[in-house]
Amino acid sequence: MSNIGETSQLLNSHNKAFNFFIGGETDKAIETYLKTLKSKPDSAEIHHYLGVLYFKIGNGAQAIYHFKKAELLYQNRK
Questions:
Q1: Are the CB atoms for 37 and 69 separated by under 8 Å?
Q2: Which of 12, 25, 56, 76 could cross-link 20 (Cys pair, CB 3.0–4.6 Å)?
Q3: 63 and 48 in contact (C-beta within 8 Å)?
Q4: DSSP letter for each residue of 2-53
Q5: Average pLDDT in the 23-39 region?
Q6: Distance of alpha carbon 54 from the chain centroid
Q7: pLDDT digits (tens, 9 = 90+) for 43-73
Q8: Is residue 38 pLDDT above 70, yes or no?
Q9: What is the C-alpha to C-alpha distance for residues 60 and 50, in angstroms, rounded to an integer?
Q10: At what angle do helices 44-56 and 3-22 cross, to 10 degrees?
Q11: Distance (Å, rounded) from C-alpha 43 to C-alpha 15?
C-alpha cells in the first residue's frame, strides 16, 4: 500500500472511531481506536482518546496507561 493510501486509511479509521466516540458508542470507539493503534502505535491522539474512553467506562488502569503514553508521545514532539 502506498504512503498516501495508508494515510487515507488511518484517517478514515480515526474518523470512524471519533464518530463512534461522539455518538456515545464507547465500545465501538475503543475497538476501532485499538485497531488503528496497531498501524500507528506512536499516535498521541489515539492514546489520548483511548484514555478518555477507558476513563469513561471506569477502567482506570487502562486510562492511566493511555494518558501516560499520550503524554510521552506529545513531549517527544517538542
A1: no
A2: 25
A3: no
A4: -HHHHHHHHHHHHHHHHHHHHTT-HHHHHHHHHHHHHH-TT-HHHHHHHHHH
A5: 95
A6: 11
A7: 999 999 999 999 999 999 999 999 999 999 9
A8: yes
A9: 11
A10: 20
A11: 14
